[in-house]
């Protein structure tokens, strides 16, 4: 650079700096206020992971016995994706679910003319016999002809979980076994009590959804074992996951039907009993709420176990236009892909499953925050620093949250039909804000509803409510809520889990509300990290 040009640039820069410091006042937010703040999400998130570019699609978790950690493969969603070739398989590793180490792209898309132009869900296993990892995945053909298979099962292997080699000889096609040519996907591989490898594939036969089964001794040669189980009615079970936990066999799946669009499960003491859950459309549900494990804010859930605990990973969808009410209610569907959300599976004495907190995430949120009741409405009174009595339509408004929060409190209702909830994105001037309402469906059942409250609120938001669970016998609810930017997860008494995406939580106030009856609120705490 010539000296005169450099001197001119320096003089200009100095003039701009002087102008800025002399004439401009940097506006700072008074965080002690309670008015609404328009906050935005971070580009990259750690607890409920999102890559800095794009989003997480269908996770494929696997416990790596060699490394002693969990590997989560997932379909990378770029928005926009490349035409024809999209959703390469990327990977993460974690030991506790509290933070993730990105592994980058593991299995790339094929070319436009190859069977795996676009990739779809699959599963990973480790084979002690040859010391290799095997990932079975879905290959999606770009613009398939009538003679092509729109979907087929493919395989890649690796000696170190870093370098993956696609098999050029392995290809499992549904049309070769009487199944659909274009719906043959989401392979899940597990080892049965018979010592054989079992592969379950989501497909259709005679226009009815079914899970096809294949058997192998070496993961390379597979033989058909017929239909594992039919899917009930007109349903289609995506992302199947079969495992044994204690004395029970389980199938966890994601129901594709737009009216459902949730993660569910079946259970049986044997594989044969598990298969019988849907025989002749039997609908032998495992519990009182059709096996639902979460809301429509959690999808494509699959599990992995370290031998002590079993965890499930799924994605929490984004919302169109960052509109909290655009939840994809039927007949629409939620947006595809989002943040990676992890829960712990809780097995109860009768074999039923619920989802609960992950200890690693709880340990991460270990910094106690100052709690301040900014205002108490009529019908609300403070009993101590973190205990309150609320009667009728009352609330207590608390000081601002941070970007990542763990909110915990206990509610004791005075009767069997008392209604309460928690509101987020709430300011003292808000004309609308967002509430998780523990709603009495009857004297003995409850369900978490999502509502847009306030003078301009739309009220109940359909399509993102939770599932029915039993009222606690002592009317005591221990509630923990985790937020990471816009991802929000609520746990109640180890019997209910509710995931949703709510934009604007961070840096805004929040409240605990009574809607009807009377409640005692105690042990209110906020932790961050």
From TrEMBL:
CDD domains: GH32_EcAec43-like (cd08995). InterPro entries: BT1760-like_C, ConA-like_dom_sf, GH32_Enzymes, Glyco_hydro_32, Glyco_hydro_32_N, Glyco_hydro_beta-prop_sf. Residues 351-526 form the BT1760-like C-terminal domain. Keywords: Glycosidase, Hydrolase, Signal. It is an enzyme of class 3 (hydrolase). One of its GO terms (biological process) is carbohydrate metabolic process. Residues 50-350 form the Glycosyl hydrolase family 32 N-terminal domain. Residues 1-20 form the signal peptide. Coiled coil: none annotated. One of its GO terms (molecular function) is beta-fructofuranosidase activity. SMART domains: Glyco_32. It comes from the Bacteria. Its EC number is 3.2.1.26. Belongs to the glycosyl hydrolase 32 family. This is beta-fructofuranosidase. It comes from Hallella mizrahii.
